[in-house]
Amino acid sequence: MGKSSKDKRDAYYRLAKEQGWRARSAYKLLQLDEEFNLFEGVTRVVDLCAAPGSWSQVLSRVLIKGEKFGRAAWEEKQQKQLSASLGGSDNASTPQLVEDLAPEAAGSGETLPRRDVKIVSIDLQPMTPLDGITTLRADITHPSTIPLLLKALDPDDFDPASTSASHPVDLVLSDGAPDVTGLHDLDIYIQSQLLFAALNLALCVLKPGGKFVAKIFRGKDVDLLYAQLKAVFERVQVAKPRSSRASSIEAFVVCEGFQPPKGFAASLDNPLGAGTRLPTAPSARSPKSAGQKRSITEDGVIEVEFESEDDDENIDARWIAPFLACGDLSAYDADASYHLPKDHQSLDPVQPPTAPPYKRALELRRTAGGGYGKTSSSAS
Ligand code: SAM
């Protein structure tokens, strides 16, 4: 597919180039934030599987530079117009959310960069640096990545013997995806391993109350995954941003209110603290469960304790997470083709891949001095 026809068939690909984002994925995070207000009160973030870096760009612009996008930017603009034209005519228009996701539509530029923000981004691929962001090249499924991450988060306060962050983070993002093979079951399996690795890292660094947002592929047993997540988060929802093609099995789990089980300690050997059993989501337990002990602490907090594991036998560990479409209806439809003006100039991507898997093949072809299919027999 040529660049121009891709522009036509993928509005978000075209917009990303026009608006300075390294990848169209930026819109997914912005639309998730529109729905869930992900960045409120957040100063420490880990962005897993971050290359080429459009999510990190969003983090940098919102958290460090204090810029606003989408509805927040529109509201700020309206506020300014209103105060500029005190008593003037009401020229408010409908929010053009997609267009307002442009960096140019961001805040006034009056805000100073924030120095109390810490963002660490990790990917297998090298990532072109971004202002104020620590980037690591590492495999999130490898145990050696945990100490690397902990050191990057707290360089002056790093304890090599510990598996948890000394200053925990507010938000862990993971947009990890394997190179898709097209074999659905295999792709879903590899994706679930990435998700498990991301969750494992999140459990080591999140603070109680923290959030975890990760890409999932919705396979047939995905509700078991939701139940696992529900065991350690107060709220688990599944979201499909408008910029994610409806035809793709991709969605995002948005987990809020990290609530580590009592006595939970992050561990690489026993990541979910589950032993050989899957912990059951607190909300999946019936309040009338037998063997339940209630007590009120000195601070007036009600604690509920389940006396024996056997009580869990009658409990259905499956749990259906609420599903939310996010992104305003005025946003582009990721599956639609759009007419472009005749004089449309297709732009180059903002950030060409740093180490694409086809790089070596291109080098070999160049040294051989050939083009596609130029073998001695085909050339004749
Ligand atoms: N969120 C990114 C952005 O906005 O630019 C896009 C992420 S891209 C869809 C998926 C990324 O997952 C790829 O860059 C890939 O290298 C990374 N990835 C896949 N497996 C990984 C692993 N085991 N460890 C670290 N990164 C991984």
UniProtKB/TrEMBL annotation:
GO terms for molecular function: tRNA (guanosine(34)-2'-O)-methyltransferase activity. InterPro entries: RNA_methyltr_E_TRM7, RNA_methyltr_RlmE, RNA_MeTrfase_FtsJ_dom, rRNA-MeTfrase_E, SAM-dependent_MTases_sf. S-adenosyl-L-methionine binds at residues 53, 55, 123, 139, 175. The active site is at 215 (proton acceptor). Residues 275-300, 340-380 are annotated as: Disordered. Belongs to the class I-like SAM-binding methyltransferase superfamily. RNA methyltransferase RlmE family. TRM7 subfamily. Methylates the 2'-O-ribose of nucleotides at positions 32 and 34 of the tRNA anticodon loop of substrate tRNAs. This is Putative tRNA (cytidine(32)/guanosine(34)-2'-O)-methyltransferase. It comes from Glutinoglossum americanum.
